[in-house]
Specification:
The structure holds two protein chains of two kinds.
Chain A lengths: L1 E12 L2 E12 L3 E5 L6 H8 L6 E6 L9 H7 E4 L11 H6 L14 H13 L15 H14 L4 E5 L7 H18 L2 E5 L3 H6 L3 E6 L2 E6 L1 H4 L2 H8 L3 E5 L5 E5 L19
Chain B lengths: L2 H4 L13 H24 L7 H10 L12 H36 L11 H15 L10 H23 L5 H25 L4 H8 L8 H20 L1 H7 L2 H7 L4 H23 L5 H13 L3 H25 L8 H19 L5
Helix pairs in contact in B: 2-4, 2-14, 4-9, 4-12, 4-13, 4-14, 5-6, 5-7, 5-8, 5-12, 6-7, 6-12, 9-12, 10-14, 13-14, 13-15, 14-15
Classes of the chains: A alpha/beta, B mainly alpha.
């Protein structure tokens, strides 16, 4: 079954075309990585799928057009982890995660026992139970990112959109967050569409990659097919070396352009080690 | 499928989501504050009333309660005709301004927003000045033209700012606030012009602008009660949605909230409450900022608790401010806006120093 389907989708922002005639299909339960240089349209694509920006063409979420759904219905189908989540001043982790239940709580009503128990189990699952009473703005970057993820999970939506979920995290926390998303995806049978900056991580944590450039699909397929030195050089204007990982993935290493790796400083001095 | 069902047999821990004891305790304490302030408000004045008599008199009016005693006729008249309407009106005005301030701060995600942000003060000021300068002689009318003119002015001022703020392409809260500033400046300019033309009314206009409850009678209470009740009910009903607006429009929408519509509903309700308060009390500054922030320092930032507490503590604060306004210079009266700022600012400083939470 197809979780997300885009046919001929174009988006203009302030009269400027950002996405051109995109066609894309994400099967249910898949993990698709969106890559591409800055300004290539990754975030706009996610926003269009989430119904946050107007578009031309056809988008289907689980077979339904977002326009035919109310905001609340859409929020029960798609949960979004934004790139720079707003940290509401003074909010506790518990209250923040409880916001994920908003699409289930009647507009003027209050949360039910079921809402609270779902929040409790999400907090437990993400090792946040002990932090439930802490203020969000007092948490470390990694803890905060888990809280944002917890809020998205509390929405119990089958589709999870992640916009560069590892922004601002160190390499250890990047791995932890992505491993966590992967575990949750497997356990809850989620479809995950994530925009990624780090190409190596993108390759490791997605079944397929879609490379956007200038609002168009420039390449698509498994990591080994998309992450080649030629493709990356062409679309990112970057010098990289791509190594094959024995586990089947690829490792993308940036190298200094026009100088062989291991060369000394430009004036010939060796860098002390 | 639910997350809960994913982990059968593993009981979720009791999270610290809503400590019911703390909430109930804070609400009870706030109720006690309001009751204490109201009692002080009716007891203190040029004529000393006997506390036991006042309690008996009040209890005697409750349905199904038989109380012997009460107050002598003259004291009873002071209680029912002078003190009580003033206390009730002060409570309504304080509750409205505090709740509207809290709601505006939430809607605009700006801690300095106050109920007058979108032109309510400018509109009410112009309406009141016009009524004072050119209003008909209304001796014998049940309600003078001043409250009506101030009410209409406040609502019209905010409506103009809202229309202006949404007419441009970008519908951000910043454009709305800027539109409010523009409308307020324009209305204040017109108001000052009218005031200069009719300078024999200067003193009366200034007296109104600084705020006062001195003419309070039951007719004032009845005039604003329906608006106050409607405004408070809508704001309290939107308390959860205000919490969600704190993450910004985009995230709120991805959580299923139609941010622009919620903002319009909350602004409309807060404006109605502010206009009702302004109509009977003039412009009382500071309450809409100081009470919500004090409540946040004590009770955290969630509007689920902030709004009910603002209702109770705003009411108590205004009763006490009015009590001070009419006693320190007795038999003269200080403008109540002077009192709210003079005592409110140091009180806020104390709360800021003695709590660890940032507002």
């Amino acid at each position: 079954m197809t979780a997300i389907e885009l046919r001929g989708v174009s988006v203009d922002l302030d009269g400027r075309p950002v996405l051109h005639d995109l066609t894309l299909s994400v099967p249910s339960g898949a993990r698709l990585g969106l890559i591409g240089p800055n300004g290539s349209g990754k975030t706009t694509l996610l926003r269009a799928v989430a119904g946050l920006v107007g578009h031309r063409g056809d988008i289907r979420i689980g077979g339904a057009a977002p326009a035919s759904l109310t905001r609340r219905e859409l929020a029960r189908r798609i949960a979004v982890v934004p790139q720079n989540p707003v940290v509401p001043p003074g909010a506790t982790v518990g209250d923040y995660v409880l916001m994920g239940r908003t699409p289930y709580i009647p507009y003027l009503g209050t949360e039910s026992r079921r809402d609270l128990s779902i929040v409790a189990s999400v907090l437990d699952q993400l090792d946040l139970a002990a932090l439930a009473g802490r203020r969000l703005d007092s948490l470390s970057g990694g803890e905060r990112q888990r809280a944002v993820l917890a809020r998205a999970l509390a929405q119990q939506a089958p589709v999870l959109l992640l916009d560069e979920p590892t922004t601002g995290l160190d390499v250890g926390h990047q791995q932890q967050v992505l491993e966590l998303v992967d575990e949750l995806r497997a356990a809850l049978d989620l479809t995950v569409l994530s925009a990624m900056h780090d190409l190596t991580l993108a390759g490791q944590f997605a079944d397929e990659l879609v490379l956007l450039d200038g609002g168009r699909v420039a390449a698509a397929g498994p990591a080994r097919a998309v992450l080649t030195e030629g493709v990356i050089s062409r679309h990112y204007h970057a010098s990289v070396r791509v190594l094959e990982d024995p586990d089947g993935g690829v490792v993308v290493i940036p190298v200094r352009p026009s100088r062989p790796a291991g060369a000394g400083a430009p004036d010939g001095r060796k860098v002390a080690t | 499928m639910t997350v809960t069902e994913q982990r059968p047999g593993r009981a979720p821990p009791a999270p610290d989501l809503r400590p019911p004891g703390l909430r109930a305790g804070l609400l009870l304490a706030a109720c006690a504050c309001l009751a204490g302030a109201a009692l002080l408000g009716v007891l203190v004045g040029p004529v000393r009333l006997d506390p036991a008599g006042v309690l008996a008199e009040l209890a005697g009016r409750l349905p199904l309660v038989e109380v012997r005693g009460g107050l002598p006729e003259r004291d009873a008249a002071i209680l029912w005709q002078l003190r009580l309407p003033r206390v009730v009106l002060g409570a309504l005005v304080g509750a409205m301004l505090a709740m509207a301030g809290a709601a505006y701060q939430g809607v605009f995600r700006n801690p300095l927003a106050d109920p007058y942000l979108l032109g309510a003060a400018g509109g009410a000021g112009l309406g009141a000045t016009l009524a004072i300068a050119y209003g008909p002689d209304t001796t014998g009318w049940p309600v003078g033209p001043l409250p009506l003119a101030a009410f209409v002015g406040a609502v019209a001022g905010v409506a103009a700012a809202y229309t202006l703020g949404r007419s441009g392409g970008a519908r951000t809260t910043t454009t709305l606030v800027l539109a409010g500033v523009a409308v307020a400046s324009f209305l204040t300019a017109v108001q000052t012009y009218v005031q200069q033309l009719e300078d024999d009314t200067l003193r009366e206009v200034y007296g109104w602008i600084l705020g006062r409850l001195s003419l309070a009678g039951w007719s004032d209470v009845l005039l604003i009660l329906p608006y106050a009740l409607l405004s408070a009910a809508v704001m309290v009903a939107c308390r959860r949605l205000l919490d969600v607006l704190a993450v910004g429009d985009d995230e709120a929408q991805s959580l299923g909230v139609r941010a622009a519509r919620v903002r319009l509903v909350v602004v409309a309700a807060a404006t109605l409450g502010t206009a009702a308060a302004v109509a009977v009390s003039g412009l009382i500054g500071f309450v809409g900022i100081i009470v919500p922030h004090t409540v946040r320092l004590i009770a955290g930032s969630s509007y689920r608790l902030v709004l009910p507490l603002c209702l109770l503590l705003g009411a108590a604060f205004m009763i006490l401010a009015d009590l001070i306004a009419r006693t320190v210079m007795a038999p003269g009266e200080l403008p109540i806006g002077v009192v709210t700022a003079f005592f409110g600012a140091p009180f806020f400083a104390v709360v800021l120093r003695t709590t660890r939470r940032a507002p």
